[in-house]
Model the fold of this input.
Amino acid sequence: MAELLERTGLPAARPVTMAAALNQALSDSLAADDSMLILGEDVGTLGGVFRITDGLAAKFGDHRVVDTPLAESGIVGTAIGMAMNGLRPVVEMQFDAFAYPAFEQITSHLAKLHNRSRGAISLPIVIRIPYGGGIGGVEHHCDSSEVYYTATPGLRVVSPATPGDAYTLLRQAIESPDPVIFLEPKRRYWSSETVQLDRTGPAIDRAVVRRSGSDATLISYGGTLSTALEAATAAAEDGWDLGVIDLRSLSPFDDETVCAAVRRTGRAVVIHEASGFCGYGAEVVARVTEQCFHHLQAPILRVTGFDIPYAPPTLEEHHLPGVDRILDAVERLQWNDTVTPPRDRA
Amino acid sequence: MAELLERTGLPAARPVTMAAALNQALSDSLAADDSMLILGEDVGTLGGVFRITDGLAAKFGDHRVVDTPLAESGIVGTAIGMAMNGLRPVVEMQFDAFAYPAFEQITSHLAKLHNRSRGAISLPIVIRIPYGGGIGGVEHHCDSSEVYYTATPGLRVVSPATPGDAYTLLRQAIESPDPVIFLEPKRRYWSSETVQLDRTGPAIDRAVVRRSGSDATLISYGGTLSTALEAATAAAEDGWDLGVIDLRSLSPFDDETVCAAVRRTGRAVVIHEASGFCGYGAEVVARVTEQCFHHLQAPILRVTGFDIPYAPPTLEEHHLPGVDRILDAVERLQWNDTVTPPRDRA
Amino acid sequence: MSILSAVPSAPSDVVHRRDLLPSSVPLRFLDSDGHWNACGALFQPADHELVALHRAMVIGRRFDTQAVALVKQGRLAVYPSSRGQDACQVGSVLALRRQDWLFPTYRDSVALITRGLAPVEVLTLLRGDWHCGYDPYKFRVAPQCTPLATNCLHAVGLAHAARFKGEDTVALVLLGDGATSEGDTHEALNFAAVWKAPVVFLVQNNGYAISVPLSKQTAAPTLAHKGIGYGIPSLRVDGNDAAAVYSAVKEAAESARAGGGPTLIEAVTYRMDAHTNADDATRYRSAAEVELWRTRDPIDRLQGYLVARHLLDEHALAAVHAEAEAFAAEVRESLSEDACRDPADLFRFVYTEPTAALRAQNAQLAAELAAADHG
Amino acid sequence: MSILSAVPSAPSDVVHRRDLLPSSVPLRFLDSDGHWNACGALFQPADHELVALHRAMVIGRRFDTQAVALVKQGRLAVYPSSRGQDACQVGSVLALRRQDWLFPTYRDSVALITRGLAPVEVLTLLRGDWHCGYDPYKFRVAPQCTPLATNCLHAVGLAHAARFKGEDTVALVLLGDGATSEGDTHEALNFAAVWKAPVVFLVQNNGYAISVPLSKQTAAPTLAHKGIGYGIPSLRVDGNDAAAVYSAVKEAAESARAGGGPTLIEAVTYRMDAHTNADDATRYRSAAEVELWRTRDPIDRLQGYLVARHLLDEHALAAVHAEAEAFAAEVRESLSEDACRDPADLFRFVYTEPTAALRAQNAQLAAELAAADHG
Ligand SMILES: Cc1ncc(C[n+]2csc(CCOP(=O)(O)OP(=O)(O)O)c2C)c(N)n1
Ligand SMILES: Cc1ncc(C[n+]2csc(CCOP(=O)(O)OP(=O)(O)O)c2C)c(N)n1
Ligand SMILES: [Mg+2]
Ligand SMILES: [Mg+2]
Done:
């Protein structure tokens, strides 16, 4: 039990929101490692606009949880200097679109300094970015910016879909010697799960099968994973057996886990809320198709946001992939007539 | 003839480098439209580090060809304000990686202001970016950054592969009412072609078939198009008939032209020098596979740069897709034994 | 631009330009008790201008409180109140002419109202209806800008273009104390100075960037001290004195018009409400501090003075308040029913002409909605 | 950090901090004729320090000319010469202690040589061999930085971390006049000031950003006038006077060490060569201008003074030049044959552990190369 406490900072399984799980992961990491500190806008006194760092400044001091001046390039750039000097900064970007001022520091330095110095410099920095929509936010507050980072070699990019995994992945990201872009699906912040927070779990670069199924494989991550699970449940009522994979790690990609599932089902749909064109799903389709071509009964389809700037709140419901759109895609997987697609049987 | 002069500013076909063609396009545009101006670092007195704007300041004055202060966000941000007030700024970024400081202005404003204002604001801005490697350049001077822009709805992204098309595409980009990211394959600047520069040509959003072929389709653009053509020529010597498509427009994508060719050949290889993972080729594979699935004899393969920060000059030859790597991919297109792949016949 | 002008001033004297530094005391006419003090540095507004400032502040304040109420009623998704900054919002806008441009932020709805925009248009973004609810060219007001400091560069570009075209236009850009830390503010001040662009930068220093106090934002003596580093003259004014803000912006705009280039103005003020309705200001500031600033209310201050000088009598006052109430009613009215929202709008404005892919996606969505209607 | 410190200085006096402004004349000990002048503002370097500065400049200059020659011979791909800026390169580095850090740019190879790095390591990037040729931790020198101004933030972060860990370390960051226009310079100055980070910002103002003269870069009285906008004390020195640069950086570093926070130093100097060998400087500056600066050569200046004061006699001078020649020979020698280049290095350092995908790509390349060998 003492050992358990040590391991998780929590007594046992209990209902926890993703926001609380992230807060716990940060608190436990600050406690575990004196060289770790948090940098960001409003992360100290206020506890962050989403309260993910709530109470941490009071507990660890404002030298460990730092309200920085308002400049994102400045935050990432100074974090890089700190990491060069042995610290482990965890940076909070207030919203997805407000990480863009730091783009040069992220792509030209954070992603490349380890390589540029032939391994002499390590940058164990985590950049936490609340991303995506679904919360009625206005423009610039709902971007799904993952591909800007996954297209940049040298960065690890991960995104949790559940409270329990949010804790595990964040602990793993903070312990990673590589820079990690940690994408938090903000619309899941208040989702709850009864779970025992545990830093051990699937490795930081592994996908997990959230539901195994034999008819088709739904591949998703972050904010749309729960939608994929709902779709699988709805399909099950029609006697339809859909598997669901939670990628967790967007870069690197876990070919082994994903291809194994797709080879079994021969059909797959990739789901994310980012725009489809040059979105992350394109890479999933391209690499899985190449590796599983002769197992595929139909092209792997993508259910994604439209190719538009993020929709205004009153229209976002139309933009975000929903259960129906996913089931429609499943129906388009060219079922031959020995099997009937879910709806026709309803 | 006079009309011809008017149309092209050139008497007739003659050998011209891509650098000269771009210079001519800028000169003709400045002459044709008083509201057009050029902004950038060293574009005036010096004529640009690649001399693309050579002589233009002398000819049109330094109020039309402006040496700005050294700040890329400042250049793009002020260009946006100028366009709001009726000007047509053409911005030069000195090198690919030095456009990153402008990323927020490009993604949050340049790409979105037309949409944000429900069409009231138009931003007919062209951002010229010399991109890619192959010139023995050091780090930050050789990035293939296209996917950062193609993944951003609201931007047009084009890249010419030949001197003649460089002229046509740039004239079209400058005349476009939409913001255009104009990617110049810097290693092709000094390539020459005997051509009559003409502003008319295939529409800005159309791909062109550079070589038609029946065995397989090579799909490329920008700096690697010539490599694809070389590969097709080499394969032809082995009696192998490969088609080559020059995408020209990366966003939007010309499904019609590309899919027509792929349906005919049933096999395709996408070639670009950017890293493969989440590179532009992923979108090409995903969308073409979805539209041509039952015509495909093999998965569409990608020949790209490795998933690494751009290589040091002395190693870049290994990083860049070459003819052999392309032919190897063609051989991996799962030929059945009625047809033998090129090499075996050699 | 001659080559010699390029010689870095070789070891030699430089003009020190102390004149670019702000005054050591913020410029003001009216102190918190409503006493009028001469202010040599600024021209004195005429009585009718003071009356106009008062009227606009009363109406703006009423709009602001109405918007806050609409949020509580769920008619608005979010609203960043500028109560307490009324003098900045109104004083700066009334100093502009029709042909001038305003580059506001999310904080500046009252400035837009003062400029003449319809409330329903100003609030479109905040009710979640569409990104920008108005035609920027109608009143020469750029879309309210959220990415901090980015609008400073747009203002500089637009103003430079106006000079390029020989137009007599000045751009006023509003930003907050926090936004001054962003690189774009630096680049905008520098471009404006080098190009001598007709721009007025008005920093509404309300002491906080959400929860972050100025002391964590800068170590500068004042924000107005930033001007000299660009060769830009700087003014520091009492941001709760509408007369001072009005006259400072007017003088800066006239100087810009006359080819004098940009001016940086720091207006010292305070945000009485939380950052937005979603914010809890008690987490980072004391009631005592808020109370202190309540005694500096910009409207009370000017009103006391106008009444004392008999420039405003009971009737006039009542009339202004009646006008404000009528305006508030109009605001409630105009937001009473939901605007009709056409999903097709999602695809209409991404490019000048929708691409084939967007047309297809539009069709897909239309089909889904049709099916849903029949299902 | 108390809430009250957060009250925006309500309309009231502010300390004007004119002391943060630079001197109106650039600080210097030695004028171009080698005459020594007292300089109250700076401590006077000891004779042996002056001799050391001279020696390092002679060696640095010889390294620089050797590198330029190696480019002509095709042994180097590109080289940005700092000839003319020798006093900045050498004076600033000799002012540092072992535990201090240097954050250089592409322009500052001579600074690295002065810091003690091996020439072959310093030139690795420029011979196209690999991105950074040295271990940054060995001499506490960050990789030479190309994206302008970005290194300023790294210096601030590293210095702040040193204080966080209770280490006595100062960071010196070098940047050019053009780089001061980038947003990152602004953000770095501001973070450093707010955090009182032990950083020295040395702007080598050589009058040009490639072809763009300072007059198109800024309208500020001087670049040193930027400091006050951040609350940072600023010095302006004659960048061709090694004694002045040395003493200014030393004092700034000591003040930083003592908790005084950052200092901004503008060193007025000139780049005698083109931007790089690839550049044609005649396109943007006159021979007359270059000649003018030749008369201000930093080495001649100090040498004349040392000789006049008999701190340097013929023998000593000959010895220094012999040392420089030997060093140049060592440079030629160390670059005579190509370094062995292992393609596998491309995949080795992208992540701490190569990913499965990178291992596969490495194997693919290895197979290709093997096939090519046998084919
Ligand atoms: C580039 C960017 N980073 C972060 C944010 C999130 N944000 C919105 S308002 C705000 C505080 C701004 O403070 P200030 O500039 O003083 O303006 P105020 O809200 O006080 O009027 C922050 C951090 C943003 N909008 N843009
Ligand atoms: C962010 C960025 N933009 C543009 C460049 C291209 N570039 C390299 S050096 C240079 C001029 C720099 O001038 P300055 O800062 O004065 O330094 P100097 O070369 O004179 O030493 C430019 C524009 C760059 N390296 N980084
Ligand atoms: Mg504020
Ligand atoms: Mg310079």
Remarks:
- The pocket of magnesium ion (ligand 4) is lined by residues D 176-178, 206, 208-209 (CB under 6 Å).
